[in-house]
Amino acid sequence: MWKKGTGDARLTEEFCIASTSFDVVDKPSRSIRYGFLSDFDSRDGDDGGDLDFLRKYHINMIQFYDWSFRHDSLVPKEDIYEDMMGKRKDFGVIRKKMEEARRMGMKTLGYGAVYAASESYYREHPEQALYTSCGEPFRFIDIFYIMNIKNDNPWHYHIIEEYAEAVKKAGFDGIHMDTYGFPKTAFSMDKERTELQKEFPGLIQDTKERLSQEPGEHYLIFNNVGNWPVGAAAAAPVDAVYIEVWPPYERYHHIREIIREAKSACGKAKPVILAAYLEPFRTSGGKEPPVEEKAGYSARILTAAIVSLGASHLLMGEDGCVLTQGYYPDYTRMSETLKAQMRSYYDFLIRYMNLFYCEEMQEVTMTHMGWDNYEYQCGFPCSGDGMADRIWMIAREGGKTKSISLINLCGCGDDCWNKGKNKPEVQKELELTVLTDGETEGVYIASPDGETAGDGSGIGAAMKPLAYTCFETDRGKFIRFTVPVLYVWALVYIKGK
Fold it and tell me: What is the residue range of the signal peptide feature (predicted)?
């Protein structure tokens, strides 16, 4: 815009630039970005800031964590109540947040553990519980009793009806079916052995069929804790493959393995969501800027990796908060600086989701790079699975399209995804050679980092063309180009003719 100057009345030119991203899909389950809410007390205040925050980060499905009265009796009879952890809730606030989320185009899922019951329910129905091989009832943190989900046990139908009540009376768009990762094998009261991974698919199927009897479209997400039992549950009628990541999945290469396994288990295309809680925010508290900076880099690197591998990350919720552990109310609030950085990452993943989430593109890094593989040649230290002190390269290709994500792990520390990371050492003049086996229309690059080295070398979120040279060898047609600078994350797009 043009603005009249002061004093000498000269005209000065001011450029105002702003950008964001959005996606348009035929149904929400094709593109799920999961967030959370866990504060439902009217005394906490409700100015709508939490949902506005989630909207700006393109969250389109929200888990209402621990909203219920009891895990065995989800919908409260009174508006003001305490949940099983003693946390005060206001059902009026919950309904208001659901209405506002719906107005913003977000779907709401009510949290509901598949087998957790209060002690009073267990005492009334001991025949519905699961027991150890020693005959003791399974319990979680001495509060929740683990019930028998087999289809010949009354609990199976009880919890499904509770889910239906959550949809019908509370108004949720679906259910987040939680598990605890244990037990994997248990016994009924009469000593019958049960393998839970064989029972989960039937429970999911029966829940889907029951919810289909209620008006509207309803969504199901099932928690595969520690990547178990993803093979059985992913093929069931869930709307995403959701995995809570715990040790021994501790390193970046484990993140890659989990996502690849989930995509293979789907049988057909389903979104993959990782609930990878970032402990550095909790252990450090985010109270000192240098400490939050380390947690922030761990969040940026992990987000870059998960998105580049074609999955999404459950991390954001409430009003500018991140998850740090499995109990969501123990979140940590981000600084304004980190919120802005993370927002640029979430804008970026939407802006280029046709590259990150294209079903026709496959990740080929480990089979097309290194040793005698000549399809992708790097003139710099790199790895295909997140090794420390290298640039993590993730190559995907399909048809005439190729993409290369570059994630800078140089100088960050170790390759443990759940530890704070040092600021990556800026890398410059990174040369790549790529086999195209055809004509190239263009090579482009973009980055969400928005940083420069003071010499104008920043890349920016909008795709910029890269100069490249074409040449031929006895192995085919190649191109060679140079990435000018890499801070944390950059995306290269190669468009063939």
Answer: none
Please give the DSSP secondary-structure letter assigned to residue 128. Answer: G
- Please name the helix (run of DSSP H) or strand (run of DSSP E) that holds residue 458, with its range, or none: none
Q: What are 304-353's pLDDT values in tens digits?
A: 999 999 999 999 999 999 999 999 999 999 999 999 999 999 999 999 99
Rounded CA Rg of the chain: 25
Euclidean distance between CA atoms 337 and 342, whole angstroms: 9
Could you give the CA distance from residue 297 to residue 118 in angstroms, rounded to a whole number? 40
What is the edge-to-edge ordering of all strands in the sheet holding 116-117?
116-117, 144-146, 139-140
Position 133 scores a pLDDT of 96
> Helix (H, G, I), strand (E, B), or coil: what is residue 186?
strand
Kindly indicate whether the domain formed by 28-275 is annotated with CATH number 3.30.460.10.
no
Which pLDDT score, from 0 to 100, does residue 371 have?
Answer: 87
Class of domain 362-496 as given by CATH: mainly beta
**Which helix (H) or strand (E) segment is 90 a member of?**
strand 88-90
Distance of CA 339 to the CA centre of its chain: 16
Task: Note the pLDDT of residue 287.
Answer: 44
Give per-residue pLDDT as tens, 171-200. Answer: 999 999 999 999 999 999 999 999 999 999
111 and 68 in contact (C-beta within 8 Å)?
yes
Q: Where in the chain are the domains?
A: 28-275, 362-496
Crossing angle for the helix pair 49-56 and 91-103, nearest 10 degrees? Answer: 30
Angle at 371 between CA 367 and CA 375, to 5 degrees: 55
Beta bridge partners of 243: 224, 274
Give the DSSP per-residue string, 413-428.
--SBTTS--PPPPPEE
496 - beta bridge partners?
Answer: 440
- The answer for residues whose C-beta is within 8 angstroms of residue 227's C-beta and 6 or more apart is 243, 245, 249, 258, 261
3 state DSSP class of 124: helix
Distance CA(72)–CA(113), nearest Å, equals 9
Residue-wise pLDDT for 399-431, tens only, equals 999 999 999 999 999 999 999 999 999 999 999
pTM of the model: 0.93
Beta bridge partner(s), residue 486: 427
DSSP 307: H
Angstrom distance (rounded) from CA 370 to CA 152: 54
**What is the maximal distance between C-alpha atoms in the chain?**
93
- DSSP SS3 for 52: helix
For residues 483 and 467, the answer to whether their CB atoms sit within 8 Å is no
